[in-house]
Design goal:
The complex is a heterodimer of chains A (292) and B (309). Chain A is mainly α and 292 residues long. Chain A has 16 helices and no strands. The longest helix of chain A has 32 residues. Chain B is of the alpha/beta class and 309 residues long. Chain B has 10 helices and 12 strands. In chain B, α1 links the parallel β1 and β2. The chains are: A mainly alpha (292), B alpha/beta (309).
């Protein structure tokens, strides 16, 4: 297993680019073809894809572009990188050659967690709730890495989950020697992303490990659980992860808060459902995934 | 070692690579334009050689993104062309050679391209933006052509105490931030009709068409104010100010850095010489500086420049 872990870590260091979902790229290409498209419109779509969001943030935080560990939202990144750079980045994005239903449901899950995390952050008056939204979107980036880079291990993980009724992260640790949180941490750290994004991504299942951004981490942890319980999208296993005591204490949410939040989340998720359906409809017409 | 990235499917590629390696360069060859472009953005080489016909649009996009958005004017780009008619003068490239070129020629052209970029000493090393000589030239050219443009003089408020409190490395980040905001905004709204230069320190100049100046100034101010907190420490953000020494060495509270823009419109016949623009800008700057926080101020006087008494 140590051998596997070393192999995974090595592959992470040399990771070139992760694939994006075809419908997102189709939608962006359409926007880029229109001369009237604004940076804000582009940001709105990019923000709905964890891989592109990761790519944009990686670029703006890289040593070369000059703002290491500073920028944590897509809209700020676009202002700094400029339209032409974003354009080139989208055009050169690699796409999933075969889009599977699991990939789509992980995408929906991530969008749902982003929405819930944003609402919670606003409710709890955390400064810059937009950043917590981004952390929510990226929290399962490690799972995308496993699926895209290690399909053979992904199959083993999936069957372990099924046969032994394990949580995804338990199965990941057994097969790879590390879980998607750790993979997310290694990757986003290598990308120079700000600590306020790294901690919630790394520790969304282990809130007690967060040091500087405990509250943000607790928010993403709780948002993950809400969305899993809601049944919006899928994180790869059918079980809702346990709620950490520590997180619940950090958040200090009252029943009344939750009563107010739930209808808002319901609205937000409905909007997202329309968005993902539109994207899938539009994307699949023009870019049919190869069927097996 | 100097790294060259070569995009080519030309049968002569291997002889070019050999000659370049012989001249002491490290060469990486790519055949897929898309992969090449995404890699360039992630890991910049020192020089790019691109076979344009492999993906004309993508390559044009990439060249503009590098040279204009990211101020990488110093990154030499050479194109491989089929024939003279493939040449387009609007592409900001440094040189080209033909598919039939032999290894020696390619190596010579690459060496020349590096030598040439060393000679462009005018560009600011921190931001890559054109410096004083180019700025004065650009202003004089607009005066002579009597274009209705706005000359905009940008500087930061409380930048010196910021440097004192946070150190020069952080100060440099702020200057790069300003450079990016100016370039991107001017490029987006004015395209080739715009110009951005870096005088030095926290002084910048940009030129844009008069009709879009208010929109551009407002956008720059909004972006700057939104981004600057990311460059401050948590404790200062909570307090709402930072503590540093003032000019006389006294410890004092300072508001966070903000951006001031003095706008001097150019009307036909208003100015004869760039020196006149600078002196009007100095007057306008005093007015902008009186306002707290980020602001811009436009000089609305239309008449010809007069020496003020």
């Amino acid at each position: 297993m140590d051998e596997t872990k070393r192999k995974v870590k090595k592959r992470l260091r040399n990771l070139q680019s992760l694939p994006t979902l075809p419908p997102v790229v189709t939608k962006l290409t359409k926007l880029l073809g229109d001369d009237n498209t604004t940076a804000l419109q582009l940001a709105k779509v990019i923000e709905k894809d964890q891989v592109l969001t990761g790519k944009v943030l990686k670029m703006v935080n890289s040593a070369f572009y000059g703002f290491p560990r500073r920028i944590s939202t897509v809209s700020n990144a676009i202002v700094l990188l400029g339209f032409n750079v974003i354009r080139t980045l989208v055009i050169t994005a690699s796409i999933f050659e075969m889009m599977q239903s699991e990939d789509l449901s992980l995408w929906e899950h991530s969008l749902g967690v982003a929405a819930a995390a944003g609402l919670l952050a606003t409710k709890l008056e955390i400064p810059n709730p937009e950043e917590v939204t981004t952390a929510g979107l990226l929290h399962d980036l490690g799972k995308v890495v496993i699926r895209a880079e290690f399909p053979e291990y992904q199959r083993q993980i999936a069957s372990l989950i099924k046969e032994e009724e394990l949580y995804t992260r338990e199965a990941e640790s057994r097969v790879l020697g590390l879980d998607h949180g750790e993979i997310g941490r290694l990757l986003t750290n290598q990308w120079n992303l700000p600590e306020r994004l790294i901690e919630p991504i790394a520790y969304h299942h282990e809130v007690e490990k967060a040091r500087r951004f405990k509250k943000e981490t607790a928010v993403v942890h709780f948002a993950d659980i809400i969305i899993r319980a809601w049944g919006y999208g899928s994180g790869g296993d059918p079980w809702v992860p346990p709620l950490a005591d520590k997180a619940w204490k950090l958040l200090r949410l009252k029943e009344k808060d939750l009563e107010e939040l739930m209808p808002q989340l319901d609205d937000r998720l409905l909007d997202l459902r329309f968005f993902t359906m539109e994207m899938q409809g539009g994307g699949l017409d023009q870019n049919p995934p190869s069927q097996s | 070692m100097t790294k060259i990235l070569l995009l080519s499917r030309n049968p002569r590629t291997s002889t070019w690579v050999e000659a370049l390696q012989g001249a002491g360069f490290s060469v990486e060859t790519k055949e897929d334009p898309k992969k090449m472009a995404s890699e360039v953005l992630e890991r910049l080489p020192d020089l790019l050689i691109l076979e344009k016909s492999l993906a004309p649009e993508l390559i044009a996009d990439l060249i503009f993104a590098l040279k204009e958005n990211l101020n990488l004017a110093f990154l030499p780009i050479l194109l491989i062309l089929r024939e003279t008619s493939d040449f387009e003068d609007e592409l900001p490239i440094d040189d080209f050679f033909f598919e039939s070129a032999n290894g020696d020629e390619v190596a010579a052209r690459v060496k020349l391209a590096f030598a040439r970029t060393c000679r462009i000493a005018d560009n600011n090393p921190l931001t890559g933006l054109p410096g004083n000589t180019s700025i004065l030239k650009a202003i004089q050219q607009k005066i002579d052509s009597e274009e209705e443009v706005a000359f905009c003089y940008v500087d930061l408020d409380n930048f010196k105490p910021f440097n004192d409190r946070y150190g020069f490395a952080r100060g440099d980040e702020i200057l790069r931030l300003v450079a990016r905001l100016l370039s991107n905004s001017v490029q987006f709204h004015a395209g080739h009709r715009g110009f951005v230069g870096h005088v030095g320190g926290d002084d910048f100049v940009f030129i844009c068409p008069l009709e879009s100046v208010e929109q551009i100034c407002q956008e720059i101010i909004d972006s700057f104010d939104r981004l600057v907190p990311h460059f401050l420490d948590e404790e200062d953000l909570e307090r709402g100010y930072f503590i540093a020494k003032d000019r006389r060495g006294q410890i004092q509270r300072f508001p966070f850095p903000s951006i001031s823009i003095a706008v001097v419109p150019n009307y036909p016949g208003k100015f004869k010489h760039y020196g006149e623009v600078a002196s009007v800008a100095a007057q306008v700057k005093k007015l902008v500086k009186q306002q707290p926080g980020s602001a811009y101020f436009i000089d609305r006087r239309r008449g010809p420049y007069q020496v003020s008494g």
